[in-house]
Amino acid sequence: MNGSLVSMAHFLSPLVPNPGPIAPPGTDVLIGNWIGYFKRAALVAGTIGLIVCGIMMMVGRRGRSALASEGAAGIPWVIAGLILVSLTSTIVSTVIPG
């Protein structure tokens, strides 16, 4: 039975349309603006995150080594988040070609 389903899917695949993503009329600029706003907010949050990690390391230097290590451990996470935000459109375009 499984072989017949595969052959049926192979037979019907040229009949099923597979259109690319299309924005609703009039929303191209609006959606682009919103993506830009969120991207800008994420970059500002990443900058603040790196500053907070630095402050945690400075304050935790004297007698609070756990705070300093948490600040240092947060730096790779903030950088990874910034990289992900910066490459989001490239990642999405690669995974789902338009």
Verbal overview:
With 98 residues, the protein is an all-alpha fold. It is 76% helix and 0% strand. Helix 2 (28-59) runs antiparallel to helix 3.
Helical content (DSSP H or I, runs of 4+) = over 70%
Structural class: mainly alpha
Which parts are unreliable, with pLDDT below 50 for 5 consecutive residues or more? Answer: none
Number of helices: 3
User: What is the C-alpha radius of gyration, as a whole number of Å?
Assistant: 23 Å
Instruction: Report the biggest beta sheet as strand number plus sense, adding barrel if it closes.
Output: none
Distance between the termini: 35 Å
Give the rounded overall mean pLDDT: 84
Give keywords.
98 residues; mainly alpha; 0% strand
Short summary:
By secondary structure, the protein is mainly alpha-helical.
List the SSEs and their pairings.
Elements: H1 2-12, H2 28-59, H3 65-95
Helix pairs in contact: 2-3
